[in-house]
Amino acid sequence: HFERGKAFYKAEDYDKAIEAYTQAIQLDPEQAEYYYERGESYFGKRDYDRCIADDTKAIELDPDNGFYYQQRGNVYTWKKDYDRAIADYEKAIQLEPDKADYYKSRGMSYHKQGDYDRAIADYSKAIQLDPENGLYYEQRGVSHHSKGDYNRAVTDFDKAIQLDPEQADYYWGRGVTYHNKGDYDRAIADYTKAIQLDPENGLYYEQRGVSHHSKGDYNRAVTDFDKAIQLDPEQADYYWGRGVTYNKKGDCDRAIADYSKAIQLDPGKADYYWERGKSYGWKNDHDRAITDY
């Protein structure tokens, strides 16, 4: 039953996997691994509470296995319950202080809480334990970026790329940092490399469009926003970005159409109404402008 469960899980047939793992548990209810694996299938179904319940049972049966605490911590992270996540990562670290990944996981939770210094300290410890893992440098780079320390961020992204040059996200992260440094050409080069590695990711086109926009190259920006929207037509920000660019080109009607689409997808964003109001103002449609403001 256990092996069948793993096969179903691999095929992403989570219901059948859960059924097989449950049968395995009924036959041998003292096997921590069975609960953990069933929990993973619940996670696949986004049933986070049942996943946590199974991880907790696995911990109860095998309390000295740091991995189970880490995995439960990851689920708490998905639930945005960062305090509980950190408590689990701390327990995992206490049990296995030489496991780099546990520090990385805790670092990610600290980052999500906005505690970038603690995040950086954890990523640095992970790097000390496993200096060949590009992900740890990339994550530390993200935290440096969030602190506004762009030079350190670029250094970390450089190292991540050197270790794993096929990871599109590493170029994207460095591109965002170059953009924030005002180095739009380098940003565009990095986004282009990310697109080459992962051409179906709309975010990379959108970000490149933003850098083209910042350079005043509005035609290239629109082309990138078009592609981003084609790949992911439910992303309000993509329409907003294209709308701002149309505005710069003096095409208020197209700008208004894009802002309206962005508002339809995400009606809670004040920026969308503000920009649409400005476009109505330029068209001397003051009543609509006032309504948006």
Summarize the helices and strands and which ones pair or pack.
Layout: H1 2-10, H2 14-27, H3 32-44, H4 48-61, H5 66-78, H6 82-95, H7 100-112, H8 116-129, H9 134-146, H10 150-163, H11 168-180, H12 184-197, H13 202-214, H14 218-231, H15 236-248, H16 252-265, H17 270-282, H18 286-292
Helix pairs in contact: 1-2, 1-3, 2-3, 3-4, 4-5, 5-6, 6-7, 7-8, 8-9, 9-10, 9-11, 10-11, 11-12, 12-13, 13-14, 13-15, 14-15, 15-16, 16-17, 17-18
Low-confidence sequence ranges: none
User: How many strands appear in the DSSP assignment?
Assistant: 0
Helix content: over 70%
How much is the radius of gyration in Å? 23 Å
Terminal-residue CA separation = 61 Å
| Arithmetic mean of pLDDT | 95
SSE order in H/E notation?
HHHHHHHHHHHHHHHHHH
Detailed description of the structure:
This protein is mainly α and 293 residues long. The model has no long low-confidence stretch (mean pLDDT 95). It has helices at 2-10, 14-27, 32-44, 48-61, 66-78, 82-95, 100-112, 116-129, 134-146, 150-163, 168-180, 184-197, 202-214, 218-231, 236-248, 252-265, 270-282, 286-292. Helices cover 79% and strands 0% of the residues.
Short description:
The protein has 293 residues and is mainly α. It has helices spanning 2-10, 14-27, 32-44, 48-61, 66-78, 82-95, 100-112, 116-129, 134-146, 150-163, 168-180, 184-197, 202-214, 218-231, 236-248, 252-265, 270-282, 286-292.
